[in-house]
Amino acid sequence: MNYYRRSAEGMLMEFAYRSLDPAGQESRGSITAADYAAALEMLKARGIVVTGLTEKKARAGSWFAVKRNFNDEDMYNIAREMSTLLRSGMRIDKAFDILIHATEKQDLREVLLRIIADIKAGKGVAQAFDNTGRFGPLVISMIHVSEAVGELREAFENIARYLRFQIQFRAEVRNAMSYPAFLVFASGVTFFVIFQFIVPRFFSIFGPQGTRLPLPAKALYAISGWFNFTSIGIMAGLVVGFLVLRRLNPVKIKAPNLYHYLIFIPIIRKLVLNLEMSRFSYSMYTMLQSGVEFIKALKLSSALIQNEQIKGPIASLVGQIKEGKKIADVFEQVHILPPIVPNMIRVGEESGNLKDIFLELYQVFDERFRNGIKRLLSLLEPVIIIAMGLIVGFIVITLILTVMSVSNIKM
């Protein structure tokens, strides 16, 4: 199977490459070959340690091109396939060579090339992954611990399991919110058409009599006028923002952390807590399963929590545990956590089986989160429909009153 795009009509293609010399210094160069695979083989034959290889080509219209950045799905594929290849007894350098030849995604290929170059230069696997800057501390720590005991296959299995959980979790949340999002979008389109076209044309019929319209009609006319004045700017801003976000990395754009304040909304408070604790608990289970020591696992897992009202108190427990305090006792001091957390941790601490306790906590909070989402959506959908109906109803009644008012004036 050919995984590489060949040039049209057998023409040669030019590639730019980055490499490392024996002293570890990076250098750049270019090479001409029939395709990507041929260029890579030619460089290897010259004894060049390749860390990056890209085709030189014009980038016309790049502002409108979709950037295929390295993401969680790529990390999951690496971990899953590495686990399979290592389980079959293959050497790690050979496994990476297979992955490099099997991927069509340029960004992913460059990451793999950088990893295998560092490994062949004598660096450890964890250090090679860390040098790419694409993997979080949780993944690096799991590889480091397993590398020390010679169980890299198990590390990649645990990483793949954790990433699959993250990917599936986000997909389920997106699917759950898709229908409410569609309702909001449909409402927005409806109101845009009404205020942009229908209402202005309707009131243009009455001419100078507009000053004698009823109060609801005047309010509707004012809203329509404001909307017509700002709609062009809003649409232009959305288009420009969309193009900028496609060009830049959205992860690096710091937006106001509105998620921080959701914990103060009573109806969403439990939902946010269950979401964060399910992530935290599964991360703790995965780290402990991989052999990471508890304090380091706690530090890394608490860093995954996004809401500062939950993250801060849990992260502060690291120092108390280092002082020798019991794990269950320090978790009991975090008043935002439900009693089930310290109680189950106390059981696991006494039995010496904290790993399975965190798996059970994940299952508890995951179920609570799913049930909470279902209840919230069961309330949200009719609320959106009713709100839309009330607004449309107000507009229709206002238009009818306007017609009746003008008819009375003429009579």
Automatic annotation (TrEMBL):
Belongs to the GSP F family. One of its GO terms (cellular component) is plasma membrane. Keywords: Cell membrane, Membrane, Transmembrane, Transmembrane helix. Residues 79-200, 280-401 form the Type II secretion system protein GspF domain. It is a multi-pass membrane protein. This is Type II secretion system protein GspF domain-containing protein. PANTHER family: GENERAL SECRETION PATHWAY PROTEIN (PTHR30012), TYPE II SECRETION SYSTEM PROTEIN F-RELATED (PTHR30012:SF0). InterPro entries: GspF/PilC, T2SS_GspF_dom, T2SS_GspF_sf. It holds the Pfam family T2SSF. It is found in: Cell membrane. The chain crosses the membrane at residues 179-199, 219-245, 257-275, 383-406. Its main location: membrane.
